[in-house]
Amino acid sequence: MSGTAKDGIVETIKTVIYALLIAGVFRTLFYQPFWIPSGSMKDTLLIGDFLFVNKMAYGYSKYSCPFAICPISGRIFASEPERGDVVVFRHPANGSDFIKRLVGLPGDTVQMKDGILWLNGQPVPQEDAGMFEEIKEPQGSQRNIPQCANDPIGIGGQCLKERRTETLPNGVSHDVLNIRNGAADNTPVYTVPEDHYFFLGDNRDNSQDSRFALPNGVGYLPSEYLIGRADRIMFSSAGRSLFFFWTWRGDRFFKAVE
């Protein structure tokens, strides 16, 4: 092999290494890609939505790095999340990344009564927003079957859920879905500890969140497990793969997360 050819191979390897390092720094410090795998945040987020998580929003901890390898104790450059933020965080028990809505801040009391969220002793108002409709069929790469308020219905049938618009005390409004009257619609009063947060899924009857203790639920989440804020959907596919272009949801491209 000639010296010129060897030099070309070396330069190619160096270019690849530099590109990987730049991508790693970008992912660690600025934005992390996240693909929605489940229906716990419908109808705000649908299975197959692809977004970038703003990692600058809350500062950095060791969980800001892949495999939690950042040599950071606590959080640095920390900023407090706001009630109503849609947040990606590291699950304390299983190490996977979760996405839920922040409803309870440190010191808050949180309770569910008959499916209504209560914060600090006051009900959070809801207004009727019609029905959420989707086809009952396998969704996403995991082929999850949606739960329906009008079950039992067969595959291919119209799956319905009651939708209401909830407005948090700071004015943030978002839709929540109701499938059934379940045990998690009525809870004890939770008091959020200092430096912890309380999360709910918008699809309230299909979400493992802070209403449920570890290891299956989230419980009170320590602040060091925060990764970032979901701000905007970049791309969305209703199929098993993003390469199935006929399943792309064009109306969700660059859609703000509210």
TrEMBL record:
NCBIfam families: sigpep_I_bact
UniProt KW Transit peptide keyword: no
Domain named Peptidase S26: residues: 10-234
Subcellular localization, as worded in the UniProt entry: Membrane
UniProt keyword list: Hydrolase, Protease
Presence of the UniProt keyword ATP-binding in the record: no
Coiled-coil regions listed: none
Family indicated by similarity: Belongs to the peptidase S26 family.
Organism (species): Albidovulum aquaemixtae
An MF annotation (GO) of this entry: serine-type endopeptidase activity
EC number(s) given by UniProt: 3.4.21.89
Protein name: Signal peptidase I
GO biological process: signal peptide processing
InterPro entries: LexA/Signal_pep-like_sf, Pept_S26A_signal_pept_1, Pept_S26A_signal_pept_1_CS, Pept_S26A_signal_pept_1_Lys-AS, Peptidase_S26
Topological relation to the membrane, as annotated: Single-pass type II membrane protein
Catalytic activity: Cleavage of hydrophobic, N-terminal signal or leader sequences from secreted and periplasmic proteins
Gene behind the chain: lepB
Enzyme class: hydrolase
A Pfam match: Peptidase_S26
Any one Gene Ontology cellular component term annotated for this protein: membrane
Record CDD domains: S26_SPase_I (cd06530)
Active site: 40, 100
